[in-house]
Structure of 5-carboxymethyl-2-hydroxymuconate isomerase:
Amino acid sequence: MPQITVDHPAQLTDAFDRRGFALALHPLVVEIAGARLAACKTRFRTTEENVVGDEAAGPGVLHIEIALLAGRSEETKKQLATAAVELAGKFVAGTSVAGHVSAEVRDLDGSYAKV
């Protein structure tokens, strides 16, 4: 915990500083949600195709999902989601993804297990 997953379009692979984003996001998760830095884990998944509305082509969708153990307020989750979206724009060089960046902060349910 926290489990962070970032889906990003294939065309951003070279322009998106993924490691830099994760290393900047982790301290925000600690500050805003009270997580432990050593517990922050981020993985990145490349999406081959995204369709937004009726766009024939575009930069695609960059979506950040942050899953936390239950107990944070809705306000804390909203603050973290907003911070993650704002931060993402700083790590995508020379592209215009601003209209297609989203984040969701959710609770891990009782089925979560780790080793």
